[in-house]
Amino acid sequence: MKKNKTKTNYIVDMIIGIGFLLSAVSGIVLLLAGSGGYQGGRNPRYMSEVLFPSRSDWKDIHNWSSILMAAGVALHFVLHWNWLPPHSLLNAPFIKRSVFSPDHQALVDSLRTKQALRG
């Protein structure tokens, strides 16, 4: 069980890392390539290729790798959902409990009770 979870976390982290690297590199290429588009014939670099792919290909790489990274982050949150409540601000020692309304304090107390029962 533990080995399977570790392997899954590793794969998700690799997806996030690859998505980030592709998005960062393509973003830098698009930034350095200058503005795109025809611009009424005033753009001498229109349809020029940057490191082989065209500008539209770089935009596609940038968009899809960003989507891949966002999906990986969402999956990362799902996989670590049980870790989040005990480490949230509800349990932070620097928050005064009196700032919560009585209804909210009851919700916080019930969440802590459920966490104590689980853990």
Query: What share of the residues does DSSP label as strand, in percent?
Result: under 5%
> Pairing-aware structural class of the strands and helices?
mainly alpha
Number of domains: 2
The largest pleated sheet is described as: none
**Bulk shape:** elongated
Brief rundown of the structure:
61% of the residues lie in helices and 0% in strands. It has 119 residues and is mainly α.
Secondary structure layout:
Blueprint: H1 2-32, H2 55-79, H3 102-118
Helix pairs in contact: 1-2
Based on the model shown, name its key terms.
single chain; 119 residues; mainly alpha; 2 domains; 61% helix; elongated
Task: Describe, in plain words, how this protein is organized in 3D.
- With 119 residues, the protein is mainly alpha-helical.
- The protein has two domains: 1-81; 83-119, no CATH class.
- The protein has helices at residues 2-32, 55-79, 102-118.
- Helix 1 packs antiparallel against helix 2 (55-79).
- The model has no long low-confidence stretch (mean pLDDT 79).
